[in-house]
Write a structure and sequence with these properties.
- With about 190 residues, the chain is mainly alpha-helical.
- Among the domains are: about 5-80, Zinc/RING finger domain, C3HC4 (zinc finger) (Herpes Virus-1), CATH 3.30.40.10; about 135-189.
- It contains 6 helices and 7 strands.
- A hairpin with a 7-residue loop joins strand 6 and strand 7 (about 125).
- It starts with about 30 loop residues before the first strand and ends with a helix.
- Bound molecules: zinc ion (4 copies).
- This is E3 ubiquitin-protein ligase NRDP1-like protein.
- GO terms for molecular function: zinc ion binding.
- Keywords: Membrane, Metal-binding, Transmembrane, Transmembrane helix, Zinc, Zinc-finger.
């Protein structure tokens, strides 16, 4: 599906850049051997039920489609499209080639990722920023870090205990028996 023409800054978009199936500005433009241009998705959907070009009925199959010439693609990419969050307040218009990037980063996109600047500093979707309970998040983070510290302390205690046992065995066993003990023990690790 192409892009609706009323989403562009230019009021008069050249007819060559319009897909005759969806009547929008070509998206991922493909060309046929009869020199017609369509959106990739539009023409492939059409060819599922037909085996001709929708304009001049020339025989046509999916495998015969080619990417539109670079000059056409450049013309399309340079068209300036309004931000999809225009109604939410974004006044920017960007070149079509920057559209996806802008959409991701647009400060009006409720799904773009932002960091809470209050207490928790968590990364979240903009739409969740006002709803989230910052103090609760912070408390959960502290709880999580406490648990990690607790687990670390337990690991250290276990290591000390093993070391202690080894020293005891070392002190009470002759050296050769100690080596064979270590050897056997290491087989179980
Ligand atoms: Zn189309
Ligand atoms: Zn044709
Ligand atoms: Zn925007
Ligand atoms: Zn927060």
């Amino acid at each position: 599906m192409g892009f609706d023409t009323d989403r562009f800054e230019d009021l008069e978009i050249s007819e060559e850049l319009i897909c005759s199936i969806c009547t929008g500005v070509l998206e991922d433009a493909m060309t046929t051997h009869c020199d017609h241009l369509f959106c990739n998705k539009c023409i492939n959907d059409w060819l599922r039920d037909h085996h001709t070009c929708p304009i001049d009925r020339c025989p046509l199959r999916s495998c015969m489609l080619k990417r539109a010439p670079r000059a056409i693609r450049n013309l399309i990419n340079r068209l300036k499209i309004y931000c999809p969050y225009r109604n939410d307040g974004c006044k920017q218009s960007v070149r079509l080639e920057q559209y996806d990037q802008h959409q991701l980063e647009c400060p009006f996109n409720p799904d773009s990722m932002v960091k809470c600047k209050l207490y928790c500093q968590r990364l979240m979707k903009r739409r969740d920023l006002n709803k989230h309970d910052c103090i609760k998040e912070l408390a959960q983070m502290i709880q999580f870090q406490r648990q990690q510290l607790f687990d670390r302390d337990r690991r250290i205690q276990t290591l000390y205990f093993v070391l202690f046992i080894l020293i005891i065995i070392y002190l009470f066993l002759p050296f050769t028996s100690f080596c064979s003990f270590l050897f056997h023990w290491s087989n179980y690790l």
